[in-house]
Automatic annotation (TrEMBL):
InterPro entries: LysR_HTH_N, LysR_subst-bd, WH-like_DNA-bd_sf, WH_DNA-bd_sf. It holds the Pfam family LysR_substrate. This is LysR family transcriptional regulator. Keywords: DNA-binding, Transcription, Transcription regulation. SUPFAM superfamilies: Periplasmic binding protein-like II, Winged helix' DNA-binding domain. Residues 1-58 form the HTH lysR-type domain. Belongs to the LysR transcriptional regulatory family. The keyword GTP-binding does not apply.
Length: 295
């Protein structure tokens, strides 16, 4: 069907690589090339500039890409509407989540969703908040679940769906671990273990350090919250992490929770969708399920 060829074309255009597109579509690379060649013959125009490193759209390719996305969406909507008559929800959701959400909240929620809608294929990408937002902006992801502040200006919908409690932790033998409650000023001249730049957790930590004008002796940054947690367990320094991540380690006293006097540390988890992108039935059911599951 022409939709199969258009799907191949769109995948190549978005991944900018024939072999990556072939892997994503479970096709051979010659099969992908044949689809593109047939499509170029049918359109009577070159659609892609090819090089050894990547491919990019020609002017004709840009025009076709825009319309192909619309055609694929309409085709998927029609298919889902027909299957809805048979009480089936089908389709694909390209879901992006920041690390805390993707590793500690999303697995159980998706498992629950899959019991109700087993014919929906969910592809999950877990990256930091900045990378998930970029994926939404570039049309690589349908829905993003991120932590921290999100500007609503460029997005069709930003929906906060839950509060997250942030916790200050230290190695179990750290001097601060002996204190029942401390003042923020007691955090001067500490070694901090942080997430990488672009992470919502890193943004929260940077804001906390700046807000209390804390002098920092040294920082170490890791590309995952798991790495930060293990570094604190090993005695490297102190850190701010989501309560979701450190519950077990606090319970078994592998790390110590440091309580701050009269200081609540909360942030929001938000669902983000790009402006101008129509949602399918599978998307709508997922969003409804997410809000119900969390509540």
């Amino acid at each position: 069907m022409i939709t199969d060829t258009l799907r191949v074309f769109v995948t190549v255009a978005e991944l900018r690589h024939f072999s990556k597109a072939a892997e994503s579509l479970n096709l051979s690379q010659p099969g992908v090339s044949l689809h593109i060649r047939n499509l170029e013959n049918e359109m009577g125009a070159k659609l892609l500039h090819r090089s050894s490193k990547q491919v990019r759209l020609t002017e004709a390719g840009e025009i076709l890409y825009k319309h192909a996305k619309q055609m694929m969406h309409l085709y998927d909507e029609a298919k889902q509407s027909i299957r809805l008559l048979q009480h089936e929800v089908t389709g694909q959701i390209r879901l992006g989540a920041s690390f805390t959400i993707g590793e500690y909240i999303l697995p159980g929620m998706i498992a629950d969703y899959a019991k109700q809608y087993p014919l929906v294929n969910i592809e999950v990408t877990i990256r930091n908040t900045e990378e998930i937002m970029r994926g939404i902006r570039e049309g690589m992801l349908d829905i993003g679940l991120v932590e921290g502040k999100v500007s609503a200006a460029e997005w069709n919908a930003v929906t906060p769906f839950m509060k997250d409690q942030m916790i200050l932790i230290a190695p179990s033998d750290h001097p601060l671990a002996r204190e029942r409650v401390i003042e923020p000023k007691q955090l001067q001249d500490q070694i901090w273990v942080l997430r990488e730049s672009g992470s919502g957790t890193r943004a929260f930590s940077d804001q906390f350090i700046a807000e209390h004008r804390l002098r920092v002796v040294q920082t170490y940054s890791f590309y995952s919250s798991q790495g930060v947690k293990e570094a604190v367990v090993s005695g490297l320094g102190i850190a701010l992490l989501s309560e979701w991540i450190v519950q077990k380690e606090i319970k078994y006293r592998e790390v110590a929770q440091i309580h701050l006097k009269e200081h609540q540390m909360e942030r929001e988890f938000s669902m983000v969708q790009s402006s101008g992108v129509e949602t399918t039935l599978a998307h709508r059911m997922f969003i409804q399920h997410l809000l119900t599951y969390i509540s």
